[in-house]
Amino acid sequence: MVCPRCILAVRAILDEMNIPAIDVQLGEVWLKRELQEDEREVLKSKLEDVGFVLLDDAKKQLIEKIKTLLISLVHGSDGEMNINYSTYLSESIGKDYRYLSNLFSSQLGMTIEKYIIQLKVEKIKEYISYDELSISEIAYKMNYSSPAHLSRQFKQVCGLSPKEYKNQMGNQRKPLDQI
User: Fold this and answer.
1) Range of the structural domain that residue 10 is part of
2) CA within 13 Å, CB half, 23
């Protein structure tokens, strides 16, 4: 789950199935009781129908937790994003960053750092589509050392400079759960 609408969709499915939840947050659901096997299968099917996956595997859950934390940081922040991601992840999850990094890379075939860059590029695309901030202002908000650094990283990921993207691509952004 990557947005408030996702949370609402999952809550609606749980309510429809009369499954009492303690809490539903981005990427996580705490239930008041254990699910029976048939309930689990129906829930899994209903979640898949709306584009979600029920994760039972602990490693997959940990990967989703990492992704959810990073998405919340990058896309939930409207201010300066001056944060040490490795420390943040390690402290939030309670595991050594090297373990998290190795697990992430082995499961997804990309490093956490590359994933963060992709998230940041999608946020930059969002800012560009709003057409309210200059590249310098976006660079500051996204904690880049300079507009040139932002532009280089953007071009590496997209194949276009931010200006070319604005002129050619407009609003073609990836959904966060597809990064």
Assistant:
1) 1-54
2) 4
Q: What is the pLDDT of residues 25-61, one digit of tens each?
A: 777 788 888 888 899 889 989 988 988 878 667 788 8
User: How much is the pLDDT for 1?
Assistant: 41
35 assigned to some structural domain: yes
Last residue of a domain, one of 34, 54, 74: 54
Q: Is 39 exposed, middle or buried (0-12, 13-18, 19+ CB in 10 A)?
A: middle
Is there a domain that residue 67 lies in?
A: no
Q: What tokens were used for 122?
A: 């999608």
105, 45 Cβ separation under 8 angstroms = no
Helix ranges (H only) for 17-96 are: 37-49, 58-75, 85-93
Instruction: For residue 95, tell me if it sits in a domain.
Output: no
